[in-house]
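Support request, please re-run this one:
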Amino acid sequence: MSGATPSAPPPSPTSKTPSTRASSSPPSAKTAPTPPHNPHIHSRIRMSWEDAWREGRTGWDAGQSSPLLQHLVRRGEFRGERALVPGCGAGYDVITLASTFQEARGLDLAPTARKRFFELRDVANLSEERAPYQVGDFFEDDLHAPFDLVWDYTFLCAIDPTLRPRWAERMAALIAPGGLLATLIFPVLEDDPQREAERMANGPPFPLRPAGVEALVAANFKTRRLEPVPPSLSHPGREDMEWLGIFERA
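Re-run finished. Output below.
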């Protein structure tokens, strides 16, 4: 979780994190706006993503690829030649996607995270061509587009909420026509407005609303899927706080 310029590392999500169940159908963008951005969040930033990795303060690192992503790859739902994982951290999701794409590229701000990825890539017996790792900025750097798939999990929620429209524009520029933006939307806390507001003020991770993400990308993408993630396919502690959004580039 770190491939853009912005915010401090989030607290560790654990199995003790309270669950908040999402509704069974997506709320409309009109009734579920993105919570307002707190202009004072940056005053509380204490360390950069690189500092966190170097000092071992990576409580958000679940130690494996997303169970949902593994499920989707096993089912053959993602196909193509090139995939990108922004804010990939140690790169577990990159390794998973490299099993089905000719190139799965990881992107992160933290050089120390790349060192951990190299270890994982060696264990998986993947070449640098198959699973390249780029240290850089999602918004500013040349990411060698276009991509057939961009997988976003704990990246959108990690950037300053004021950057969300720019995130959507960048995704449209990176993904080839007919390609997919797949977002594992987390944390979804709209059934608990007080907790949502607290998390928005103290993130990252900053809360997201499924309808809000859909509205962000509506100008350049059509919605294929927008649905809650079964608890069995979430990391422990994130059950009932995740939605899957799959959007096709027009």
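Strands lie at 82-86, 103-108, 133-135, 147-153, 175-185, 221-228, 243-249. The first strand starts at residue 82 and ends at 86.
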